[in-house]
């Protein structure tokens, strides 16, 4: 589906939705980092069913933002979109059950194929894929179940995010679709970028961290910045070829869950 040429009101909803999403993303991250009920779970201060505290924290934050995104999209559609040519079937939000389950199958097969390549390279060449703070490596079978533990939370975010990027925010900016994609990738990562920069600038200038915002929480955001930007681009590329926003949503959730589970400490009681 080609990008829509937005009206002035359409652009207001576009930019307004992005700003609200970014603000909520940053606020919710700080709020969770200060939540007294969550801290024992994240830092293994008390027995719980959560085997990987850091992964659970990020997945929970992602799910909360996915739900917020669904609310924003619903309000946008009811207040503006349905009166201004937004067709939920045409843009893939309501693709039909066949296409929906095809998306699940395609995401599963693609993920399995990708990690099979990782396994082959690890087995024969003792190497894997690493870039800055992202490591895609082979893992023992128990990590699959750890990934499934957080997968529902990641699914809420990445499916909602793919629908938002491709069905609600797929608009032409300066007659260039790539500008729209770049803007959405930036706003996906904007709140984490701001939080990391603010933390390090505060530490550099004062020697202290931001009050109430622990240093580990900004460290966890480094891979998140990369993941959120890259998955936005992947989502758009897949949508342009398929007109189905759910394929990228399922695929990104699966891959991110596996990468996260295979690179994090496991605590057992």
TrEMBL record:
Origin superkingdom: Bacteria
UniProt KW keywords: Membrane, Transmembrane, Transmembrane helix
Transmembrane stretches, start-end: 12-32, 52-80, 100-124, 144-166, 178-201, 213-234, 246-266
UniProt keyword annotation of Transmembrane present: yes
Protein's name in the database: Uncharacterized protein
Species of provenance: Agromyces atrinae
